[in-house]
Amino acid sequence: MDYGPAPESQKEAQAWLEQHGRTFGLFIDNAFSAPGELFASTNPADASKLADLTQASDADVDRAVAAARRAQPVWQALGGHGRAKVLYALARLLQKHSRLFAVLETLDNGKTIRETRDVDMPLAARHFYYHAGWAQLQAEEFADHRAVGVVGQIVPWNFPLLMLSWKIAPALAAGNTVVFKPAEFTSLTAMLFAEICLQAGVPAGVVNIVTGDGRVGEAIVNHAGIDKLAFTGSTEVGRSIRTATAGSGKKLSLELGGKSPFIVFDDADLDAAVEGLVDSIWFNQGQVCCAGSRLLVQESVQDRFLAKLRARMDKLTLGSPLDKSIDIGALVDPVQQQRIAALVDSARAEGCTVYQAACEIPANGAWYPPTLITGASTSAAVSQAEIFGPVLVAMSFRTPAEAVQLANNTVYGLAACVWSENISLAMDVAPQIKAGVVWINTANQFDAACGFGGYRESGYGREGGREGMYEYLTALSEDARPAAPLLEVKGKGKAAAVAGNDSPFAVDRTAKLYIGGKQARPDSAYSRAVHGADGAFLADIAEGSRKDIRNAVEAAHKAGGWSKATAHNRAQVLYYIAENLAVRAEEFAARIGAMTGNKNADKEVQASIERLFYYAAWADKYDGLAHQPPMHGVTVALNEPVGVIGIVCPNEAPLLGFISLVAPAIALGNRVVVLPSEAHPLSAIDLYQVFDTSDLPGGVVNIVTGSADELARTLATHADIDAVWRHDGSAEGCAEVERLSAATLKRTWVGGGKGRDWYSTAQSGGRAVLAHASQVKNVWIPYGV
C-alpha cells in the first residue's frame, strides 16, 4: 500500500518571514539591529530564497559581548527561582509555537517535518523545562560553584534549534549570559527564538544572537571578553578552536565528529535492528554526528541481514521535506551533496560495491539517495572519514572481541549501537567501546537528563544532565588559588655532583627512572645533580627523553588490567601505599626537608598519607547514575577512566602535589606517566619502593624525571596518551600543552600561571578533581518493548 502526499502548510512560516520583510538584523541587548551586510538563507529542497540575514562584524561581536558582560551580574543575582521562571516561560513558548518552529526549521534545513515536529521540538522544550529545574536547585545542588560568566556558543546546521536549546538552556540556568552564533545556513529559527526571549521576559543582554559565516565564530573564539566556549561542529574546526584558546584560560567544551559503529550480533532481532539502522543512519539524511554510519554485522547472519536492509532501503521515500509521508529530505547545501558524492565515488574506484535505493530524485535542490557500501577495507576513506550523509559502510565480524576491535578502529568516539537479545553480551560489549553514548537495541535516543558527548577526537565535555551543568560552572575554590612562582632548578650537570662526594669511589647516588614496575636507566645516558636547600649535593637524577616517555607509555598500556580491576581492589592498593608510606614517614620527611628546607616536612608527609586514604575512600564511591528518561527503559551513566594520563607535578609540596594528582587518577582506573617536581624530584622517585611493596601492578605508575618543558611537549604530542595534566605553575608551559594537545584533541587540565593549595581538599580534592580523571558514558537500555 502506498501513501498519498500529506503536505504540511507553510503559510504561517512564510507569513512570519514576510512580517519581517524577509530581512533580519542581529539580536543584541534585547533589540534587533538594522540589517547590515546581507547573505541569503535558502530552502535546500528547491533552492528558493527564504530570507536575508546580517553578516556580523567584529564590532558587532564586541557589542554583543559587552551587553552580555553588563547583564551577567544582574542575571546571576536574580537567583535560581528567578531564572527558573524565565526558563520555564521559554519552554512553554516553544511548545506554544512548536508548529511554526518546526515548519520554519524544515524550510531552512531540509530535514523532514516529521523529524522537526516529533523529535526536535519536543526535545528543545524538554531542555528548557529540565534546566529550569536545575536553576531552581542550583543554590542547593551546586552550592560550591558559580557561573562561569559570559559564554560564547557556536552550533552547526544539522539541528539548529535543538542545538540552541542544548547550549542556551544550561548556560542560562547556571547564571551565565550568552553570545550565540547559529550556523550560516540555518539561522532562521534562532531569529524566531530571539522573539520569544522578549515574550518570556529574558532581561536585556542575557541572550545575544549574532549571525554570519566562520568569521563571526572566529571573532567569538578570539574575544578576550568570553569566559567559556561551547562548540558543536567538525573535528577540524574543534582543533583550531583548541589551538586558538590555548593559554587563554577560557573554559572549553567540544562536541565534534563521529564514525559510530552499529553492531548486530547473530542473536539480535534482525527486523528490529534494520528499523533501528534506518533511524540511525538515514535520520536527518545522515547529517548527524552520531549517525550509525559503520554497520558491523556478525558473519553468520550477514547475508540475511543485508538482504533485509536492501529491501527496506527500497521502501524509503525521498522528496519534499514538508510532506509528512516522506522519509528522507534534502541535504543542507549542494556543497555537502558534492562532498558525499566524491567519497562514494572513491569507494567505487577502490572496488567496493555500492548499492543505492531506487528513489526518485527531485530536479531541484540538494539530494542524495540512501546508499550502502560493502567490500570496503577498514582503512578506506569511507570507513574512516565522517561522510555526514545518507551513506552506510558495512563489514562483518566473527567474535565479540573482533566486533569491539572494529568498533574502536577510528579516531572518533561519540556513539555506538549494540543489538543483541543477550543482555549479558550487550552489557559486556558496551563498556569496551570507546564512545560517550551506547544504545542497546535502540538508536538515536536523547534526553536532557542524560549527558551526551564524546571520547577521543569526538571532543570532550557533556551536554545535558548534571555533568552538562558543570560545563557552565566554576568551582569557588578556583577563585582562591594562590600565585605559584616558578622555582629555580639547581644543578646543571654531573660535574656539580663530583664536588660533593668525599672520594671518587663514593657510593653512586643516581636515582633512576621508574617504568613498568622497574627502575630504568635513561635512554639519553645523561643525569643531573640535585642539591638541597643549603646547596649540598643530594643525588643525581636521570634526564629522561622522548624515548623514555615512549617506553613509559607502552608500559602504561600493557597495564590495562588496572582499568578492569574492581574499585574495591584499587582502593585496597591505595590503602596499602598509604600504610607503607606511613612506615617510612620520617625518611620521607627528612628527604623533603633536605630538598626544600621545609622545617615542617612531616606535615607534608602526613597530608600525603591522608590524601592517599582520601582517594582510596573515593575509589569505590565515585559511582555513576541511573536515569529514567521518557523512553521505556533506563539510562546508566558510567564513570569510566580516561585511559593513560600524562601528569606534570608542581614544584611546591613535591610529595603532596605528586600524590594529589596521581592518587585520583589511579583510584579511578587510569594509568599514569608522571613528571615529578623538576626542582625537588627525589621524594617522588623514592616512592618506587613503596609502590613495589603495595601490590601496585607494574606500569600503573611510571615516573620519568627531567625537563618539565621538554617532556611535557612529548606527552602532549604522543598519540597514545589520552589526557595531560600540568600544574607546575608555568603559564607558557600550560598554554603549550593545550596548544599541542589539539592535534589529537587530548583532554587537558592545567593550572596556568597559578598554583594550588595542595593542603586544601577544596582545591585539590573532591568531585572536581575526579571529574578530570573520568569520562561519562551513557548506556541506554530499553526494556519491555
> For the CA atoms, what is the radius of gyration?
28 Å
Structural class: alpha/beta
The percent range for strand residues is: 15-25%
> Mean pLDDT, nearest integer?
93
Summed up, what is this model?
The chain contains 29 helices and 33 strands. It is an alpha/beta fold and 785 residues long. The strands form eight sheets. The chain has a ten-stranded mixed β-sheet with strand order 14-15-16-13-12-17-18-33-27-26, with helices on both faces.
Describe it.
The chain contains 29 helices and 33 strands. The longest helix is centred in the first third of the chain and has 29 residues, at 113-141. It is globular and about 90 Å long. The chain is of the alpha/beta class and 785 residues long. Helix 4 packs across helix 5 (113-141), helix 9 (235-245) packs antiparallel against helix 27 and helix 22 (601-619) packs parallel to helix 23. It has a ten-stranded mixed β-sheet with strand order 14-15-16-13-12-17-18-33-27-26, with helices on both faces.
List key phrases describing it.
785 residues, alpha/beta, 10-stranded mixed sheet, 6-stranded mixed sheet, 29 helices, 33 strands
List the helices and strands and how they pair.
Elements: H1 11-19, E1 23-24, E2 27-28, E3 31-32, E4 38-42, E5 49-54, H2 58-77, H3 79-96, H4 98-109, H5 113-141, E6 145-147, E7 150-154, H6 160-173, E8 177-181, H7 188-200, E9 207-209, H8 214-222, E10 228-232, H9 235-245, E11 251-255, E12 261-264, H10 270-281, E13 294-298, H11 302-313, H12 334-349, E14 353-356, E15 371-374, H13 381-384, E16 391-397, H14 400-407, E17 415-419, H15 423-429, E18 437-440, E19 459-460, H16 465-470, E20 473-475, H17 495-499, E21 510-511, E22 513-515, E23 518-520, E24 527-531, E25 537-542, H18 546-558, H19 561-564, H20 567-583, H21 585-596, H22 601-619, E26 625-627, E27 633-641, E28 644-648, H23 654-667, E29 671-675, H24 682-685, H25 687-692, E30 701-703, H26 708-717, E31 723-726, H27 731-741, E32 747-750, H28 761-764, H29 766-772, E33 774-782
Parallel strand pairs: 1-5, 7-8, 7-10, 8-9, 10-11, 12-13, 12-17, 13-16, 15-16, 17-18, 18-33, 21-25, 28-29, 28-31, 29-30, 31-32
Antiparallel strand pairs: 2-3, 4-5, 6-20, 11-19, 14-15, 22-23, 24-25, 26-27, 27-33
